[in-house]
């Protein structure tokens, strides 16, 4: 048996991350020996489909149960198709979550508990998020304030009654350069993650436990899945057709289908 816990760090004493597809780490644990393997989440910065890709990753790692805070419908469907038990509402330290799991305290979830794209836009470490707030001064003046939290400003500015609103000063050249460097580093990390994911999907052996399946009532033969498939496993006739030999069950097509006509199932 091997269980996976979504975590904010790579160790047993790190906190459980409430997001499945966009958690920083998956801590894989043998509950009998407490031997662990920390897997950095390669899907953290994906624009879409992070839950599906993370579920496929769990299937590849032979996970039998997943402990997390929240799980959306696409990820839940993929995990269920792979035969992985999903347990949501988990919080606290990874070590404590495993101990509770071993005592049978957690019931297996019977469905998703959040909507699709729940974790999109959430900061990787919510505790340290910084936000800016805009305050209104008295008597028509304007002010600027700073807030703490997930992008939610709490600042209050004080303006003068008779004077005009004070304009915010533009960032200095040095500050602008630092901001651009930070943005470049973020984009570089995102590109690296995407490149690694492309190589991973392209090299994946077709012995995956999952394969894409088409809902004929929903499919409109739009062809969006063809462009999304990295192994050219999809053709379109009256509806999309999946090649059993080529499909690796990567789930890329699910994320791109506008009709939600694709799912993953066991081979």
Note the beta-strand portion. Answer: 15-25%
Q: H/E series, N to C?
A: EEEHEHEHEEHEHEEHE
Please name the CATH architecture of one domain.
2-Layer Sandwich
- Report the helical percentage: 25-40%
- Radius of gyration over all CA atoms, rounded: 23 Å
Number of helical segments with 4 or more residues: 6
CATH class descriptor name of one domain: Alpha Beta
Structural class: alpha+beta
Tertiary shape: globular
Distance between the termini: 21 Å
Point out poorly predicted stretches.
Answer: 124-161
The strand order across the widest sheet is 3-2-1-4-5
- The CATH topology of one domain is given as Nucleotidyltransferase, domain 5
Mean pLDDT over all positions: 81
CATH homologous superfamily assignment of one domain: Dinitrogenase iron-molybdenum cofactor biosynthesis domain
What is the count of β-strands? 11
Question: Biggest sheet, open or closed, and with what strands and sense?
Answer: 5 strands, mixed
